[in-house]
Design goal:
The chain has about 170 residues and is an alpha+beta fold. The protein is built from 6 helices and 6 strands; from the N terminus they run αααβββαββαβα. A hairpin with a 3-residue loop joins strand 4 and strand 5. The longest helix has 14 residues. It is elongated. About 15% of the residues are buried.
């Protein structure tokens, strides 16, 4: 394999991976030494690609995110809502917002930006107070969430898990 082809393949492997890949693993895959990988990474970085070396391996810093709007069943209790948020966050997603269709006011959208267990706990604490009502309680209809993740694969895994837990309105996998 020529040097240019190897570097293109190395870049392709890193681009396709959402997780860091160890230098030794890359070296074995490309049938070169780890030192060659280190040199190739340095030269690829010089072209402007933001490759980060972490203790878990090399990863391309990717600020791009993929989004999807999902339709969820309304909740009977707080445990169902907690389970919905926890499933999304634990699988690497972020709950950007909640959207409901109000019979009088039309579509109401509120930003949530929940992407950690701490965010969920803070939200659930507010939701359990008498001063705060979840937006989804304003309608008997379903509600929507815009979720985002670093890859389409992560979004697919989130949707699959939510379907398995009977949280989504659509009970069949696409």
């Amino acid at each position: 394999m020529k040097v240019k082809e190897r570097r293109e393949l190395l870049l392709s492997i890193l681009n396709k991976s959402a997780k860091p890949i160890k230098g030794d693993e890359l070296a074995n895959t490309l049938n070169v030494s780890r030192q060659v990988i280190v040199q190739d990474i340095a030269l690829i970085r010089a072209t402007g690609v933001d490759i980060i070396a972490t203790p878990q391996g090399y990863v391309i810093y990717n600020t791009k995110v993929t989004t999807k709007t999902i339709e969820c069943k309304n909740h009977v209790n707080g445990d169902e809502f907690y389970n919905e948020l926890k499933t999304i966050v634990d699988l690497g997603g972020k709950v950007k917002d909640v959207i409901v269709k109000h019979p009088i006011y039309g579509e109401i959208k509120v930003d949530l930006d929940i992407d950690s267990n701490r965010d969920i706990d803070e939200f659930m604490k507010k939701a359990s107070s008498d001063e705060f009502k979840q937006l989804s309680t304003l309608t008997k209809e379903s509600h929507l969430h815009t979720i985002e993740a670093k890859s389409e694969e992560i979004l697919d895994e989130i949707v699959s898990s939510l379907l398995d837990k009977n949280i989504l309105v659509n009970n069949r996998k696409k």
